[in-house]
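ok new one. same drill as before - structure tokens go in, u give me an amino acid for every spot. 72 of them this time. try not to just spam alanines like last time pls lmao
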């Protein structure tokens, strides 16, 4: 039996996720290990807001930049 993954219709990033995106935007290095230590979910990867290189470092994507630059 295969289980389905529920995805909410609207994605609202957590404060920690937004903080990580801002750090990446400013050019700070965020590795997978530091993200795991900070209890960051993989939702950023799943939603295409960040990518990982071969050394497993995270890099912000255009979608991630758009998310942190939006106005409320």
């Amino acid at each position: 039996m295969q289980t389905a993954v529920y995805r909410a219709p609207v994605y609202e990033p957590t404060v920690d996720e937004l903080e990580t995106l801002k750090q990446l935007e400013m050019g700070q290095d965020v590795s997978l290990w530091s993200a795991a230590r900070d209890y960051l979910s993989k939702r950023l990867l799943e939603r295409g807001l960040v990518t990982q290189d071969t050394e497993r470092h995270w890099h912000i994507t255009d979608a991630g930049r758009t998310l942190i630059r939006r106005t409320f």
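The chain has four helices and two strands. and btw Residues 51 and 59 are 5 Å apart (CA to CA).
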